[in-house]
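Illustration 12: Pre-mRNA-splicing factor ATP-dependent RNA helicase PRP16.
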Amino acid sequence: CICSAYFHQAARVKSLGEYNDLRTGMPCHLHPTSALYGMGYTPDYIVYHELVFTSKEYMQCVTAVDPKWLAEMGPMFFSLREAGASRKKHADLHQAKMESEFQLAQEEEAARAAAERLRAQSRSASRSQIVTPGGANSIPRSKTPRRRTNI
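Figure caption equivalent — predicted structure in C-alpha cell form:
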C-alpha cells in the first residue's frame, strides 16, 4: 500500500547510508531520526515521504520495499532488468503469448462473423415465410356466401 502511494519517491542504495533517487538521480541520505538509520544494514530499495534539505538531502518517513513492487506499481517509471539468457527466454515467452492471443482473437472474430451470417440468413428465411392476405402464396379460402335478397 505504501509502495503504491510513494513509488515516485523511491531510492536505491549507493553506499552505506547513502541512496540515489531513482527518478532524478539526486544523492540522498537517511535522516538520523529514521527507523532504518541505525538498523545495522541498509535495504536495497526504499520509498520516502519527504526530503529535508539541510547540508545534505535527508529522507524522512522511510520504508524498505521490494523492487518488484516498484515495477508493479509504477510501470511508467520502473521495469525489472533480467540477465541475458532469461531476458531472451522472457521475450520469447512474451512473443508466444502475444501470438496465441492474436490467434484466439482471430478465431473469435471468425466465430462472431459466422454467427452474424447465420442470424442474417435466419432473418431472410423467416421473412420469406410470412403470409400476407390476398398474396400469391396465401391459403385459399372459400368465398363468403352472398346474401339472398328475394326471400
